[in-house]
Amino acid sequence: MNHEPYKLIPEDFSPVPSLDGTGPELHFVDGFGTLDAIGVLVPSEGDVPAAVGLHRETLESAGFDGKPGTTLQLANASGTLVVAVGGGKPGSLDSDGWRKAAAALVRATQKHSRIGFELSDTAGMDAERLGQVLAEGVLLARYNYDTLKSKAKGTPLAEVQFLAPGVDTAAAERGVTTGRVKVRATTIARDLCNAPPSHLTAAGLASAAKELGERFGFGVEEFDKQQLIDLRCGGLLGVNAGSAQEPRMIKLTYQPEGSPTGHLGLVGKGIMYDSGGVSLKPSDPMHLLMKMDMGGAAAVLAVFTALRDLGCKASVSGFLMCTDNMPSGSAYKLGDVLTTRSGLTIEVKNTDAEGRLVMCDALTLAVEDGVDGIVDIATLTGAALMSLGQLTAPVFGNDQRLVDLVLESGGRADEQLWQLPLERAYRPQLDSDVADISNLGGPYAGSTTAALFLAEFVGETPWAHIDIAGTMQSDKDDAWRSKGATGFGARLLIDLALGYSAE
Predict the structure, then answer these.
(1) pLDDT digits over 385-426, tens only?
(2) Which CATH superfamily is domain 25-176 in?
(3) Active-site residue (options: 89, 174, 210, 281)
(4) Which of 53, 111, 112, 238 matches a 20 to 30 Å C-alpha distance to 367?
């Protein structure tokens, strides 16, 4: 990393969380031990569990209606806080509902370190799945990025006990273990995205990837500027032209034991900071968030930390295309023509449409690698945010089977996706008078024209594209999402890789 004096980077700063394996204890119990607070699931109708100690009329008079996500703190003479947690209509909670209920409980008990959760109405829930989503809800909701604070705020969570009569405890504990691994990955993605751009450069991300690869059993190859020139990665090099920092392509590889079920390629956009280049962005709150423009690369890197521990049976290759996008006397300009790895030439019509330029080279390399399918993930277009907001990411693709697999994984992870059409009729908007293609379409359907641009570089290889420009961050604490970077895509792509097979 570049330790320039004005940055005053702490000597012990690392973009990778400690991951020392301690964390809070999460386990299923037959009876509660000593706790600071106990959460009790309360449905919106029917009997109120005895542990609450109040009638429904009293709860309603206090403003608690039992809807999912709602909580009410109740004083208790014993000194143990009781928290009513809304469960909705009896029998209505699914996996996502339980994840959000656990998140609501830990948010309502921020000042408490030992918490219990009395579960009811778990009939029909797979015990292993229940353990996983409870762990995800608890741990994701308690995330804080305090690496650079002189004094951490909040009370560390030490233990959560789950009391769930009739649930297969052994299976539920296995689910907790799976949930921990997926949360660990999401935490890595969040920490990388939340790190300041002065602290985490493209070269710094490569160093972090090597550290994680050694720890979690995957291969890492780092390609510097000269190697990228040799590879003819003109898209990435063009975007990097205005930067004082060298670019990096980071290739990740995971090989399972035995014969793989297929070979999945993952591509992540890694713009470490996006000023817009000479097409400079306005200085507004969105500009501040551009340190997270590497959210796709962070999610892909995070995926690889989980594959060995969760027994992934597919081969997985990842390509992270990393640089910042800065204005300077050497920066690429409107009207420039870039020559890509594929040989296609691109006319630059807007230097703030840079994500597709760095990713096109990686898509070509993934195809050359012989993958059976490619999924790319990128904070690509403001149009994605404008059309679907901060909770749902659009997905496009040229192969419905792969798109369906991605949608199903998003559903299981509670990382919402919505398929939008790869409308080929819009492709002429990308035509150029001087090159094979331009990097900007018309004023409408910006997410679609960006996807159409990427589609030019995958040929017939099955491919899906996830645009996380809207979902990369949250303005507030919301269910399992903590304010700041969300790590969106990490758990989704882990789920996809675990079930992936060639057609």
Answers:
(1) 999 999 999 999 999 999 999 999 999 999 999 999 999 999
(2) Leucine Aminopeptidase, subunit E, domain 1 (3.40.220.10)
(3) 281
(4) 238
